[in-house]
Specification:
Blueprint (H helix, E strand, L loop, with lengths): L24 E8 L5 E9 L2 H20 L1 H5 L12 H12 L5 H19 L9 H11 L3 E4 L8 E4 L2 H20 L15 H12 L14 H10 L6 H10 L3 H4 L7 E2 L4 E4 L1 E6 L7 E6 L7 E4 L2 H8 L18 H14 L14 H14 L4 H8 L4 H7 L5 H9 L3
Antiparallel strand pairs: 1-2, 3-4, 5-6, 6-9, 7-8
Helix pairs in contact: 3-4, 4-6, 9-13, 14-15
């Protein structure tokens, strides 16, 4: 690859990168790299035009170093077409540089989804050749795609069609990469933005086509209050008790519950400050590491008022260690937490119920939210804030299941 060289020594009368009004002056430089991404630099408040020219020249020099330097060349070891980068090239750049490193698990999931499904079909296609109609047809076709699902050690894989949630995740990963391409001015618009997908209708159609019967077993379980109480009793002497208690009383996600320490409680303000989550993070070229990470959205960072029972319990907890901890008083592995939860659920007699899935830790959050909405009649705007949802649509769509008792109570009011 030959380096592109820009020569900044322009005549004194040519200062297109420097603001005409001044002093002070502003320098703006915008160039395009060989991989079609933008190089942007700006500096304001420069006292003289002579100094502004030097700043401009330094920006051009920086660009030339990047464009022709060894470090930059390593990221460009692929063949590029005249129409701009292909989808495969752009996804590689998103993974290596552009997707935020603060959410490595999401980046890994995006990369896996596109590598398994998007790139085999569209990897060699230039970004500028992607069209909304073609992508829509392709995404719908994924609903009939059969994949091999691992069933664990010593068990043969099982063939299934992709789930609706998996297809939506593939679309989200593809849309994220294309949005970054718009941001870097490689393409003018994201062909997936504004694309209306009739997910439920498409899912019903593919079930009819493939002869897939509706699953009588729901994907999540709405626990009754007495079942949650039985679970707490069964976990009383287990290391997972603290996480189950916090989830059942405050509606925390399991990753949030595992990250709670006594110092996260503000007893003067009577709130729990939810600021971190515990995740096993995988970074490219490095072993995975169990660590506290930032929450995904700003609304997930929240202060939850403490019920009296939670305040009394929290005051009795030890300082300086996680409330849900391993045998060495350290952070509990999320996988170990799920194993302990399953043990407690079996001990409480909640597993193996006909036409009901075995409960998971997330069902506690589902129970808590539905109870606030349906039994206690708390406004959805309040519940959404307490849950840390980005919008109330998430709360209503995924967490507002009514029990048979709720339905019976509603109908009894008619007479």
């Amino acid at each position: 690859m030959s380096a592109r060289v820009f020569r900044p020594k322009l005549p004194k009368t040519v200062d297109s990168n420097i603001s005409k009004a001044g002093p002070p002056f502003t320098v703006e430089v915008e160039l395009r790299h060989s991989d079609h991404t933008l190089f942007r630099r700006q500096k304001t408040g420069i006292p003289t035009k002579q100094l502004a020219r030097k700043v401009r020249d330094s920006f051009f020099e920086e660009f030339n170093v990047l464009e022709g330097g060894e470090a930059y060349a390593k990221t460009l070891a692929v063949v590029r077409s005249a129409d701009g980068p292909t989808l495969e090239e752009w996804v590689r750049k998103c993974v290596d540089e552009l997707w935020p490193p603060v959410i490595p698990n999401t980046v890994r999931e995006y990369e896996q989804a596109l590598r398994d499904h998007g790139l085999p079909s569209w990897g060699t296609t230039p970004l500028r050749s992607l069209r909304s109609a073609d992508l829509k047809t392709y995404i719908y076709s994924l609903l009939e795609k059969r994949v091999q699902i691992s069933r664990g050690k010593n068990k043969p894989p099982e063939e299934r069609v992709l789930s609706l949630s998996s297809v939506r995740a593939i679309k989200a990963a593809l849309s994220s990469a294309l949005s970054l391409a718009v941001e870097h001015r490689i393409i003018e618009t994201n062909p997936l933005i504004g694309l209306k997908m009739r997910w439920q209708a498409a899912d019903a159609a593919r079930r009819r086509t493939l002869g897939i019967e509706e699953d009588d077993v729901p994907s999540k379980r709405l626990l009754k209050l007495e079942e949650v109480q039985a679970l707490l009793r069964a976990a009383q002497d287990s290391p997972i008790y603290s996480a189950i208690f916090l989830q059942s009383k405050l509606g925390l996600r399991i990753a949030e519950a595992l990250a709670v320490r006594k110092s996260d409680f503000d007893f003067e303000s009577n709130v729990l400050r939810v600021r971190k989550q515990l995740k096993r993070v995988e970074r490219k070229g490095q072993p995975s590491k169990l660590m506290l990470t930032e929450l995904k959205t700003a609304k997930a960072r929240r202060d939850i008022p403490l019920p009296p029972s939670v305040r009394e319990w929290a005051l009795q907890q030890p300082e300086g260690v996680p409330l849900a901890r391993n045998e060495k008083d350290g952070w509990m592995e999320p996988r170990r937490a799920q194993e302990l939860f399953a043990e407690a659920a079996r001990k409480a007699g909640l597993c193996g119920k006909q036409n009901l899935p075995d409960p998971t830790s997330h069902d506690l959050r589902f129970h808590w939210t539905s109870r606030l909405l349906n039994d206690l009649n708390v406004p959805v705007t309040v519940v959404s804030r307490l849950c840390g949802h980005a919008n109330i649509e998430t709360t209503l769509k995924h967490y507002s299941e009514a029990t048979s008792a709720n339905l019976a109570d509603a109908m009894s009011r008619i007479d």
